[in-house]
Amino acid sequence: MHNTQDIQQKLQHLELILRHELMLLIKDSLKATEVAHISMETPLGKVIDYLPQVKLINTDIFTKFMKLDAAYCQLELGLYGLCSDCEMDIEPPRLFADPTEQRCTGCEQKFRREHRHELRLNH
């Protein structure tokens, strides 16, 4: 059983880090006359919707925000810590290392084998 409050705090801390990272990224990429249409207080869904508009859809930060959003949804539904593929428990060390982890080790390895060509193209 997972401690929902601890997980919520970990996810919120990660979200804060990602938002700071995003704000720096946007600040560095915007021209002096442009204004970012998001802030640290913008709801997570609107942040995710904004990323494609500023050409950040194929970036690591977009992936991290999507995983964060999925983890919040899983927590809300009582499904946090279950593999999105086999629905078995994700190993605690994996979740400790990355609280947004979506797959158990076995399914992650299978996913990487099946999608290695696609994964290579993204790097």
UniProtKB/TrEMBL annotation:
Question: Where would I find the dksA C4-type zinc fingers in this protein?
Answer: 83-107
Q: Name one GO molecular function term.
A: zinc ion binding
Q: Does the keyword Zinc apply?
A: yes
**Cross-referenced InterPro entries, in alphabetical order?**
Znf_DskA_TraR (IPR000962), Znf_DskA_TraR_CS (IPR020458)
Q: Which Pfam families match?
A: zf-dskA_traR
Which residue numbers delimit the Zinc finger DksA/TraR C4-type domain?
78-111
Going by the UniProt record, its keywords in alphabetical order are: Metal-binding, Zinc, Zinc-finger
PROSITE patterns linked to this entry? ZF_DKSA_1, ZF_DKSA_2
Task: Give the protein's recorded name.
Answer: Transcriptional regulators, TraR/DksA family protein
Naturally occurring in which organism (per UniProt)? Shewanella frigidimarina (strain NCIMB 400)
Starting at the broadest rank, the lineage of the source organism is: Bacteria, Pseudomonadati, Pseudomonadota, Gammaproteobacteria, Alteromonadales
